[in-house]
Specification:
Structural class: mainly alpha
Largest sheet: none
Radius of gyration: 36 Å
Distance between the termini: 46 Å
Number of domains: 2
């Protein structure tokens, strides 16, 4: 019997944990959906474009594509496949100009995106703080309530013991 009760209690606890986890996930998804909607509503097209450029410019996809482009550029201009179409012979001055221009535009775009992301992270941190603060308040309330219940239980036990003592005294007096 005890084994079945412990299994049933553990199952109930697991069910509660799963339910709580599902509720927390749903709540987080609603908050993220709200933040994403607010982000879409409050940011300009140019800001969203900068975020997309920064996301691509900071990815492995960009590194691979750009590496392929650089290697192809150098091979095309070094090998003597066609003499007419060489437009940037070593030391690749035109390629240097392109790379410098790309870096000059890419860096501020990435920094703009990072600044917006930092502001968004700050808002999310404030929301997390508010949720944690509210949870802490609720935990404090529950603890105070539990302490009050414990105090009341002690009083009831003390009164119960006093009644037992009184009953024992009365029984012993009646026997005499």
């Amino acid at each position: 019997m005890e084994n079945k009760n412990s299994i049933r209690n553990r199952t109930i606890t697991e069910k509660h944990e799963q339910r709580i986890e599902r509720l927390v996930n749903d709540y987080e998804q609603r908050i993220m959906k709200h933040l994403n909607e607010e982000y879409s509503r409050t940011t300009k097209y140019s800001d969203r474009l900068a975020d997309q450029i920064a996301a691509f410019g900071g990815s492995w996809k960009f590194i691979i594509y750009f590496s392929i482009f650089l290697v192809a550029w150098m091979i095309w201009n070094v090998l003597q496949i066609t003499k007419v179409l060489h437009f940037d012979e070593p030391p690749f001055i035109l390629l240097n100009l392109i790379l410098s221009s790309l870096a000059a535009f890419q860096a501020p775009i990435i920094m703009m995106s990072q600044n917006r992301q930092a502001a968004r992270d700050k808002r999310e941190a404030m929301i997390d703080f508010a949720i944690n603060y509210k949870a802490e308040q609720e935990i404090d309330y529950v603890q105070r309530h539990l302490h009050h219940i414990e105090d009341e239980l002690r009083k009831v036990r003390k009164e119960n013991q006093e009644l037992r003592d009184l009953l024992q005294t009365l029984i012993s007096q009646n026997k005499k």
